Amino acid sequence: IVRPPLSVGSIIARTLTSPGTTIRYHRKNPHINLRGGGSSSLQASPGDYSEAARTFFGNFITPATLLLTALVSLSLQEIKVPQYGKNSYRKKLRGLYYVIGLLSTCSELICVLYASIASNTLLQTTSKPAASVYSLIQREYELAWIATMTHFIGGLLGFMTCCGLGAFLSFPPGYNTAGACFAAAALLWMLRLANTRAVMLRNPHLSNCFCLVKRYIVLTTKQLKTFSNLSVLGISSIALTGISMGLLIRALVSLDEE
Questions:
Q1: pLDDT digits (tens, 9 = 90+) for 139-187
Q2: Which sign, positive or negative, has the C-alpha torsion 74, 77, 80, 86?
Q3: pLDDT tens digits, residue range 178-237?
Q4: In 10 A of CB 210, how many CB atoms?
Q5: pTM surpassing 0.85?
Q6: How far from 186 is each of 60, 158, 161, 189, 225, CA to CA, in Å?
Q7: Dihedral sign, CA of 217, 222, 225, 231?
Q8: Burial code of 136-151, b = ≥16 C-beta within 10 A, e = fewer?
Q9: CA–CA dist 249, 231 (Å, integer)
Q10: SS3 for 94?
């Protein structure tokens, strides 16, 4: 009697229903462990995830560009303080509106630049095999990923802050408070979504947006320790940023009106 060959499904079914077979599932490292005559694990083997990493960085370029377009028009728009609202603190808020709009615009530009450089580098070089796209990014492109995320989220939050300030300063009484509250609600919801573990790629150094900024500072400091022309440009940029922040604080605490 010639028996037909067993299919893959029948072999798996016989293995799972045999008396000596046990199935183990680990929540943190999910895989199936078959114990019978032998053992095997259904795990992903290392491979080339360069294309997936390029897609990951490319997913930031288009949204950041669209947000950048909105920020340019928003930050250059003149906010006219109504006659009923011409007082010192409203004028200071108007100045803060312009500065936040400019900072958010610069942040999104840096986001697009980091993502574009990382995407082009992945296209031009061959990466070593990795267990997953997350492993590849954290191993070779952690700074690019941290910088992209930091500047994208920062620009997005700055955009909503400008929307809230613009509504508060330019809307009629009553409507201005309602509009500012709507913008603040959206801002808090975005901040909540940005703090999820899915956004942080389960990086052990990250648990929220504050850790994201801290990690960005640490990685950037390590990169600037090597003295070169690029380091000089980076240090000069940081110095100018500090000077700008000092001038901004002095303008905010000043009691002089325009």
A1: 888 889 999 999 999 999 999 999 999 888 888 888 889 999 999 999 9
A2: positive
A3: 999 999 999 999 888 887 765 566 666 677 778 888 888 888 888 887 766 667 888 888
A4: 10
A5: no
A6: 20, 12, 10, 5, 39
A7: negative
A8: bbbebbbbbbbbbbbb
A9: 27
A10: helix
